[in-house]
Amino acid sequence: xxxxxxxxxxxxxxxxxxxxxxxxxxxxxxxxxxxxxxxxxxxxxxxxxxxxxxxxxxxxxxxxxxxxxxx
Length: 71
Description:
Elements: E1 3-11, H1 12-19, E2 25-30, E3 33-38, E4 50-59, E5 65-70
Antiparallel strand pairs: 1-4, 2-3, 4-5
């Protein structure tokens, strides 16, 4: 399946917008390509300082979110 590896640094304050439902999508930019995925995919990675690290976003051939892994 296709995938994208990227780095995230989202503070706990920034993540509150996703948690409170004010934002439902996360937008990542890789060069000229912009990819959106559901913010709920980040929940397993939230710590008291936010979300930090490198991640692998896996999607299907129709560009639908499949999973997110920390790498």
